[in-house]
Amino acid sequence: MQILQSNALNNISLELTRTTDLDILLNKIIKYAAIIVKAEAASILLLDKEKNELYFKASLGKKSREIKKYKVKVGEGIAGWVAENGKSLIVDDVSKDTRWAKKIDTSTKFKTKSLICVPLILEKEIVGVMEVINKKDKECFDKNDEGILYSFANQAIIALWNANIIEDLNNYFIHITEILIQALENEPLGPKGYFMRLARLATQIGSKLGITGKDYNNLYYASLLHDIGKIKLRKKIDISFKAKDNFHLVQNEINLHPVVGANMLKQINLFKDIVPIVKHHHENYNGTGYPDRLSGEKIPLASRIIAVVEDYAKIIYNKPIESHSENEKALNKFFSLVEKKYDPKVINALKEII
Questions:
Q1: DSSP code of residue 2
Q2: Quick check: 241 pLDDT over 50?
Q3: CA 217 to CA 336: how far, in whole Å?
Q4: H/E stretch holding 56
Q5: What is the model's pTM?
């Protein structure tokens, strides 16, 4: 039993280094815990401080899906008592315990006979409880089982701690991005709100093309920051290229902005996944773009989306069109570049949206 417990804890410790998905980690923790203590069911309930109630974050057993919709008030039932008092409980027969609240059993038609419930304490604060239910083989839970459950509860605490750190990093990431966008809009690179509108349209197209999850987030942030390299280049251009006869030199410098932006972003680990998107957002579908003259599917899909959205946004948002006919002319020219400059499926997705 000790070898099995040790192996299970080692497996969970390894998972903690491999994934940051809290749901996956907590479900694995209760799965191993239930196996080791020979329980029919197990669950982790986390505390909602504002509502002063527990909600099911992870559950294992025949009614695991059904119980997710239920909440437990702090102080209510055995789980609520443990959350309120910060002490563990071993209950051999719940029907004889005055703290037992049977409403979830009644609603789900599940029969709870015995259980162990331990508190989850993070930085001296109770953040939830972990419980295993119904010892198999008609045995009773004991202090050894309680100790085992505490070992697994400690792994759950580590997972929650890591999740909090990741949430803080994500908040930091979002604030840094907002600061960068403000810097872009303070430069003459686009009117206020331009980059947000562009990012919204890009992600709409992305959704049409089946982009989800992390790739969706990468598309969003790359859309916001695709022109970040122009900030650095503009300072150099303002100083070095004042004369009109230096137009080609200026253009050559501007053409460097995808590479400059990518190099700026790759120094920030949180931005590493959007570096190739930013670098290649000026590649053309037929291979005539820059910086690497990539073509077709070799260009990241997110880059192909930004290429379309950026040029479309310049027509709609940036340049004041004096007449409807001029607007139509600009849009017709834009759409005529499909398969030359733009990916046909991205253009089709844009047409469905507009």
A1: H
A2: no
A3: 30
A4: strand 53-60
A5: 0.53
